[in-house]
Every structure is written in structure tokens, then in C-alpha cells.
């Protein structure tokens, strides 16, 4: 099994599985389908559905969850805020941006932010609060 999956999913307890002795020199992992479905629904930000097996039912579920949860990158948030990526990364370090990390982009992973949080983040980072509508 890929060490990335072990490090990012199994070791932190996000994906529960058990070891089993199969063929070959390495022990394998066995995952229950219910646990896999729960993992995809709760932690789709960790996945890249484009790299999953096309046509598989878990790939279809990951695509659906990815579209509905709308996790975006630092670059996407920076474009929305009209600032540089560095400004967004600084806001992440300051705790102003709720985020998750997924494997990739070095040791610490790629920052992922839900698109439905962008307006809230803009208010916290830039202090831009929409004026109330006039009546």
C-alpha cells in the first residue's frame, strides 16, 4: 500500500483498516466498504478523484462529494480575494482561514479550503463586511 495513504489516512485514524497476511513479502491492508464510504464522505479533501480508478463506485462517490463540498486551493482563494498566495498562507498561519491539508506539495501537504467559507474568510482577512441592504 502506498505510504502516503498510511501516513495521511490510516495513522491519524481517519481510515480504519486491519492488516492481513497476503501474498508477497509485505502485509496488506483490508478495509470495510462501509468505512471506505464514510471516509470518502468525511474526508474527500484528502482525495484527488481524477487520480482514482475511472468508473469505480467509490470514484463516483468521490466526484459527487468533491463537487458538493467544493474544496479549493490557496490559489483559488487568493484569486477570489484579489491578493497573492502569500497573503492567504499568512492568514492560514494566523488562524484566520479554516482549512484541511491533503497529500502533495511537500511534507506538510496542500492546503484545501471549502468554497462556501470564502465570504466568511474575506470578512476575517480583509475586513470587508457587506453593507446592509437599504430599505
Q: How are the secondary structure elements laid out?
A:
Blueprint: H1 3-10, E1 18-20, E2 28-30, H2 33-42, H3 57-69, E3 71-72, H4 74-81, H5 85-93, E4 100-102, E5 110-114, H6 118-126
Antiparallel strand pairs: 1-2, 3-5, 4-5
Number of strands: 5
Q: What is the CA-based Rg, rounded?
A: 18 Å
Beta-strand proportion: 5-15%
Major pleated sheet: 3 strands, antiparallel
Query: What is the chain-wise order of helices and strands?
Result: HEEHHEHHEEH
| Secondary-structure content class | alpha+beta
- N-C termini distance: 61 Å
Instruction: State the strand order across the main sheet.
Output: 3-5-4
Low-confidence stretches: none
Helix content: 40-55%
Number of continuous helical runs? 6
Gross morphology: elongated
Could you state the oligomeric state of the chains shown? single chain
Mean pLDDT: 82
- The figure for the number of domains is 2
Keywords:
single chain; 6 helices; alpha+beta; two-stranded antiparallel sheet
Q: What does this molecule look like?
A:
The structure is a single chain. The chain has 135 residues and is of the alpha+beta class. It has helices at residues 3-10, 33-42, 57-69, 74-81, 85-93, 118-126, and strands spanning 18-20, 28-30, 71-72, 100-102, 110-114. Helix content is 42%, strand content 12%. The strands form 2 sheets. A 3-stranded antiparallel beta sheet has the order 3-5-4. A two-stranded antiparallel ribbon has the order 1-2. β4 and β5 (110-114) form a beta hairpin.
